[in-house]
Amino acid sequence: QVVCVTGANGFIASWLVKSLLERGYTVRGTVRNPEKSKHLLNLPGANERLELIEADLLAPEAFDSAVHGCHGVFHTASPFHFNITDPDSQLIEPAVKGTLNVLESCAKAGTKKIVLTSSVAAVAYSPKRAGASVVDETFFSDPEFCQKEQRWYVLSKTLAESAAWEFVKEHNLNMVAINPTMVIGPLLQSSMNTSNELLLGFLNGTAKSFPNQAVGWVSVKDVAMAHILAYEKPEAEGRYIINERLIHYGEMVSLLMNRYPQYPIVAKDADDSTRLPSYNLSNEKIKKLGLTFQPLEEALDETVACFKELKLLD
Ligand code: NDP
């Protein structure tokens, strides 16, 4: 079966492409810079079953040829950065217009199933969370709240996912959304990605403080598998939170200090106030679809081993 993966060279997408090739799929990967995609060509099966196609999210009809003839499309491409000077052009437009651009190609091609890489960013950021002890897939982030808090990446993912649901409803397309928390794991790609960079900052001591906030963490291998389950299981529907563990940044830093005492971890609470009460993120729905999670400690060990191999850590 032929499937398309947008942003194929990215951190999560590279693992997804690897898993799809291992399962026998023929993969068309869209990339905007073939120079950043060479690692994909060395994956097992790539010679026979991987084709790379250049496509920018904002170029009209850029995905038509990539999507044409594919049974399924995994739309993962979207900018994930925190150092932003112009949220509209750097995040929101590529996320929202890019998603609609890909979906328009899917509508033209009659794609049978679409898996959208959304984020827990599109789930958990709303005033509704304040009173909740458990956040599940029925929560949807509130754009006004994100805007007020200037959470531009969160806003981009929220607007992109809601625009996608509207589009697929109107065009009668079958879509499932995957909503991961902070994804860590060994890099297949040659450049560093935002979520691994955050972890690396704690380990190498460049991160001096952490926000008063709880964050979820999950292994990239599990996120890739969640995409595949969502695609292959006919009963998959709606959205799926993908999270192994939600912990306060402070607890994460303590865990890292205990597990890797050889590294110069220094980050401290950014303020002295009591650590904010946490909530839980439900991962029951994806477990019911068959996903088992790699424990966070194991995912950390594998990520640290990769950082060492890449000489990013001693
Ligand atoms: P990466 O930065 O590694 O990958 C992002 C991908 O999107 C790259 O292929 C990038 O291409 C592509 N992209 C960005 N802007 C454009 C554009 N204008 N045109 C074409 N391609 C573009 O990040 P991740 O793998 O972490 O993220 C992949 C997806 O997962 C994103 O949708 C992200 O929001 C989502 N996600 C990530 C989480 C995480 O913790 N990592 C958590 C939850 C969701 P290029 O390399 O050329 O820049």
Q: Which SSEs are present, and which pair or pack?
A:
Elements: E1 2-6, H1 11-22, E2 26-31, H2 38-41, H3 46-49, E3 50-54, H4 64-67, E4 72-75, H5 87-109, E5 113-117, E6 134-135, H6 143-148, H7 152-171, E7 175-180, E8 182-184, H8 194-203, E9 209-210, E10 214-219, H9 220-232, E11 238-242, E12 245-248, H10 249-259, E13 268-269, E14 280-281, H11 284-288, H12 296-309
Parallel strand pairs: 1-2, 1-4, 2-3, 4-5, 5-7, 6-14, 7-11, 8-10, 9-13
Antiparallel strand pairs: 10-12
Helix pairs in contact: 1-9, 5-7
The structure holds NADPH dihydro-nicotinamide-adenine-dinucleotide phosphate.
NADPH dihydro-nicotinamide-adenine-dinucleotide phosphate binds at residues 7, 9-13, 32-33, 36, 56-58, 76-80, 94, 117, 119, 157, 180, 182-183, 193, 195.
Describe the structure.
The protein has a single domain, classed as Rossmann fold (3-Layer(aba) Sandwich), CATH 3.40.50. With 314 residues, the chain is of the alpha/beta class. It is built from 12 helices and 14 strands. Strand 4, helix 5 (87-109) and strand 5 form a beta-alpha-beta unit. The strands form 4 sheets. The protein has a 7-stranded parallel sheet with strand order 3-2-1-4-5-7-11, sandwiched between helices. Residues 7, 9-13, 32-33, 36, 56-58, 76-80, 94, 117, 119, 157, 180, 182-183, 193, 195 line the site of NADPH dihydro-nicotinamide-adenine-dinucleotide phosphate (NDP).
